[in-house]
Q: What sequence folds into this?
């Protein structure tokens, strides 16, 4: 009694067995799939970055609006960081320092369309560097990175 090969190894009618596959054709096929996967991953990363920057801008805008409307001081950012950190423990980027940058982002670029078309194309680290330069140049009382890597006031 002969054993039948498992289904996954069966050769379909009209198909060439694996040993007869043209190596160049197969190699080109695998290369094409790798390219498509890499491109899709890149697009997904860009999309995720854009959404994150827009989220950060919205958070910053909301903080600004509440501070102006409710008269909240700078300490509210520390409290927000604690509360958001507890609500989203797996999420990085919700520190008091980052919330201050989010506020500065919304203050520096209040136009939502500009943020969507230009600012959201840059990674968060690049936006932070731009903000640091703007803050250092224009207002020494705003949060900025000290040489030790911490924010000053």
A:
């Amino acid at each position: 009694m002969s054993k039948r090969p498992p289904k996954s190894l069966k050769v379909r009618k009209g198909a060439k067995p694996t040993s007869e596959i043209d190596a160049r054709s197969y190699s080109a096929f695998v290369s094409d799939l790798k390219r498509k996967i890499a491109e899709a991953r890149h697009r997904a990363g860009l999309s995720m970055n854009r959404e994150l920057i827009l989220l950060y801008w919205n958070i910053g805008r909301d903080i600004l609006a509440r501070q102006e409307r409710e008269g909240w001081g700078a300490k509210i950012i520390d409290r927000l960081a604690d509360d958001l950190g507890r609500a989203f423990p797996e999420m990085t980027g919700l520190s008091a320092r980052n919330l201050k940058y989010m506020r500065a982002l919304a203050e520096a670029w209040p136009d939502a369309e500009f943020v969507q078309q230009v600012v959201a194309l840059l990674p968060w680290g690049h936006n932070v560097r731009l903000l640091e330069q703007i803050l250092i140049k224009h207002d020494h009382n705003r949060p900025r990175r000290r040489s030790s890597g911490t924010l000053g006031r």
Remarks:
- The helical segments are 23-70, 75-87, 96-108, 112-117, 124-138.
- The longest strand covers residues 144-145.
- Residues 5 and 22 are 23 Å apart (CA to CA).
- The two ends are 83 Å apart (CA to CA).
